[in-house]
Design goal:
CATH superfamily of the largest domain in chain A: Aldehyde oxidase/xanthine dehydrogenase, molybdopterin binding domain
CATH topology of the largest domain in chain A: Aldehyde Oxidoreductase, domain 4
Shape of chain C: globular
Oligomer: heterotrimer
Mean pLDDT of chain A: 96
Distance between the termini of chain C: 50 Å
Helix content of chain A: 25-40%
Number of helices of chain C: 11
Number of strands of chain A: 29
Low-confidence stretches of chain A: 810-817
Radius of gyration of chain A: 28 Å
Number of domains of chain C: 3
Number of strands of chain C: 14
Strand content of chain A: 15-25%
Largest interface: A-B, 53 and 56 residues
Chains: A alpha+beta, B alpha+beta, C alpha+beta
Strand order of the largest sheet of chain A: 3-5-1-12-9-10-11
Order of helices and strands of chain C: EHEHEEEHHHHHHEEHEEEEEEEHH
CATH architecture of the largest domain in chain A: 2-Layer Sandwich
Number of domains of chain A: 3
Shape of chain A: globular
Distance between the termini of chain A: 86 Å
Chain lengths: ~800, ~170, ~280
Amino acid sequence: MSDRESRRIGLPLERFEDRALLLGRGRFADDMPVPAGTLHAAILRSPHPHAEIRGIDAAAARALPGVFAIVTGEDVRRWTRPFTVGVKQKMEHWCLAVDRARYVGEPVAVVLAEDRYRAEDALDAVAVDYAPLDAVVDPQLALAAEAPVLHAGVGGNLVSERRFRYGDPEAAFRAAPRRIAITIDYPRNSCTPIEGLVVLAEHLPGAEGYEVLANFQGPFALHPVMALALKVPGTRLRLKTPPDSGGSFGIKQSLFPYVVLMCVAARKAGRPVKWVEDRLEHLVAASSATNRVTTLTAAVSAEGEVTALAWDQLEDCGAYLRAPEPATLYRMHGNMSGAYKVRNLAITNRIVLTNKTPTGLNRGFGGPQVYFALERLMQCIAVELDLDPLEIIRRNLVPADAFPYRCPAGALLDSGNYQEAVARAVAEGGLDELRRRRDAARREGRLYGIGFAAVVEPSVSNMGYITTALTPEERHKAGPKNGAQASATVALDPLGGVSVAVASTPQGQGHATVLAQVAADALGLEAAEIRVTVELDTAKDAWSIASGNYSSRFAAAVAGSAHLAALRLREKLARLAAAQLNVPAGEIRFAGGRIFAAGNPENSLAFARIAGTGHWSPGTLPEGAEAALRETVFWTPPTLDPPNDADEVNSSAAHGFVFDFCGVEIERDTGRLRIDKYVTMHDAGRVLNPALLEGQVRGGFAQALGAALFEEFVYAEDGSFLSGTFADYLLPTTAEVPEPQILHIATPSPVTPLGAKGVGEGNSMSTPVCLANAVADALGVADIRLPMMPARLKALLEPAEPPPPARPASPGQSAAR
Amino acid sequence: MPRLSRDMRHPIRLVVNGREMAGDAAPRLLLSDFLRHVLGLTGTHVGCEHGVCGACTVLIDGVPTRSCLVFAVQAAGRKVDTVEGLAGPDGELSPLQLAFQRNHALQCGYCTPGILMSLSAYLRTHPEPDEGALRDMLSGHLCRCTGYTPIIRAALEAARELRKES
Amino acid sequence: MKPPAFDYVRAESVEETLAALAEEGDEARILAGGQSLVPMLNYRLVAPKLLVDIGNLGDLAAIEADGAAVRVGATVTQAQFLAWPGLAESLPLLAQALPDIGHYQIRLRGTVCGSIAHADPSAELPLCLVALSGTIMLRSRREARDVAADAFFSGALSTTRAPEEMIVAVRFPKRRSGCGYAFREFAMRRGDFALVAVAAIASDDGMRIAVGGVGDRPRACDLPPLADAALADALNAFAWELEATDDHFATAAYRRGLVRSLGRQAVAEAMRCRG
């Protein structure tokens, strides 16, 4: 059974998903059939960033034609309870604002009507008596004693503070000749999938509880959160996902409060209820990455070696600490030393609430905030020491012979060769030529810079890392949390057909194609022969709290689980075949749709013949053999322990590596940034489908470019929201996204079943800071804030403008007066 | 034409993908909703409903149009083409669709129908586009998954295939 | 994001359209390409009682040139105007500006007159009409009148059109001999409304510079022949006069900077192509 020869894994197969999508026959959430009598929901949202809700009069709305019912906080109090929160604080987050609204866009009431048009008509007729309160949107101002307090029970807006110490940072800082620091104000943004959130909820009349179809992406740790909020056992909340999902990038995690809300609505109406989030709702209220103020200080030797890092992170999670927050802040916790061998760390983490939309999963999840600070700091160290930034990176990288490498805060860097990755990127990406281009441009007086970024890309999150936000004592009380259960089922049908089912809820990444490749290799079949289903039904499928599509866990964990399940099935089939072919099971091979003896391929049987045995003739199985019918494997990475009493945690199972460099030019007149060249080197371990992997890199790069140059959720000081349409929140288009040069090396992970690591999030972490470092190099400035919009860069390169003319008279005749 | 009352649904007849179809629509019903929820043609997707993302693009009398910015009543009596009409009679993918599949020009596939519709019209009138022209034309479509380059590659390849065919 | 309810009529004639406007006044809106109006409806920023669809009015579909001007009818799309064979010769400014309007898909439906009627302060067509001192041709059941572009735009999304009037056409004065025309625009992304757009018309006798995207409407100023420092001073003075404001994309100072730099480029280009 040690036959690991693979012929499909590693090939850039075309996707089995594409045909239906290209024909317009995809099955997205809003395409799925709805039961007769389904009502359509429209949500009334708070126009105020902070206001008491004194009362709601829905009588006029209810009287409008086509309107069936109005759901308010009263109903929510009756049938639900507040969501479970990750830290111990007296604050309540309901699926609807019950007595106070805390951000613009917070749901306040739901209208149920015969169609969405009518439901929206009634929104204006719902009379809400608001008493506006002062709002605070700046995380630093929110800490002030006089700041408006969002949750009275907390007494302030600081909801969590923890200090960590690894190694001996004080001694390292005392000993270091240089101390170099940077402060970063990382903005809010979101990967804004083109398909919005969709929920179809039904309350069944018997004891079945609730049934929901939603384009939820996981983590399914939120399933218990929803069930608890609905006050039903988990088995009474059946959650199904549709076969297709129009992108998520983390964002569709944030639909779980709407599942609860629509369940309440369906219960009140006694009818199925469907809600389709529109773009305005999505931008104002779905989710966003956290904004974070970070001060990062390094102890630096004269040669540029970083001997200690001191992190001070102030995380802004918006109006509520919505699960799984404060995960954004702790996702990277085990690896706050990045790609570097620094052994001494001091970390202060504070979490503050403000009158903004609650935060959540977003591609990169915590990585962009960390690496923007860390890699900007490395560039600043180079400037201060007058050394080449690449040289600073090189001098600090974890040595190639140190793997597996335990980081000071507990992450186990499973494999890697950062030096080789950098060397090959520099050579294959043409850094020397880029430097010549920079020199030539500068000789002409142009503003040209080169940036670098080195990033460790974590994948397969440890479900216990979030508990690092608790003290060891609190953790002891609550019981240990850890691991990352992935599941896959491989089954045989009576005609010998093979199917694979997983709980990975893909949103376009091509999971079905990769799983077919994996199962095909294990069973000696063609990938096209494998039927893969990715829609999930919590009542019938194998799943666990770590299920879902996040933390780049598919290739490393889910595909690996499918591989293990297929191998189990193969083992059973081999024993059946061995009896029929009269050879030991160890000599049985699978290839070309046949099962045969290794030494004598003529001695063979059709795969389908053996595969159907478990169905047709279980009575004829050899002594002691089990029927081969269906194998479900739950696999959790063996290296994911709970955080220990020293607060060390291996926050992720696999750690890839990304090294980027780029050349940019800034137009002097306009401040517009043009990317001349972008090189991105990835080590994602073993590559399962290179075409899909490149798709992840390219797509991640484009989103990161958006975050770097265009995208920000902007709030005015008074808490009003300024980025409410796609004309205000700008996504990059074909005209703005250049093609990066994508390079690979592979150091397979010893931890994951197939040696694969995640790859989908690396550029979210590396690209914004790589571009910012290039801008810093071009302009000779240190203080760079994202997004690097033309007006911001122009202000950096030309702080003062010509004054107005002395006399207000125009030299010409103004014609438009 | 008589004034159509806001409170009533009115019969709409039109030709969709070469076939006569009919359904009822209030004056304010967006063509995107009419196609999806009245005619059951769910291949046309809705991404922003303010004319920016391009996901809902269909052809009206051959002209690429955001169906979220048109009312069903406006399409009465006209020819509408949607993604469901691109393939051959037995479901064989068109050269454009095949090029998308070969080039991995889609991931979640949500924005894809709109892009295919814009391209199917554009390549008819611009049989030899260069990359710059395609990037300009497709800047009217948002895609969050692919980083765009595979879409451009697929379009260039499809244009070559279509030139060979004609 | 669904529009509020309205009645709908597909007009068969201009007279029918004007009758509907006379009857409903403010409560009626003309629907042509819909690229500005329908988003406003979907946002529920407007809630007219009646939409009058003029899409079928063949007699408003013409682009006609006489000796002095090009007349563009109310249903002519931006794409049709861009494809009009006489454009580069007669209207070099429009030939440069039209490709910057929205995207291909928007231009295919959006009408020239609709953009004028919508009066977005950042839009290209109102700017060009002001720069060229063009005319808006209005009709109501009672009268027909022509309004100079300068007098038409009265603020952001606001014009001096009376509720019972419709734009039947706009007139763009043709290229004058001895004049050069140039257009420069800076937008956040391809196809976005301009942060700043500048149109320049230059001849030996002087120059006219119009700016969009700054302030609540496009503005023009006429200058004597200027160069170098004097031109820079004049552009700076004009930039300050425009009462730029901050928004979340750009500061007022940044917009003034673009007026200066795009203005300089546009004037230089217009001077170069005097002919």
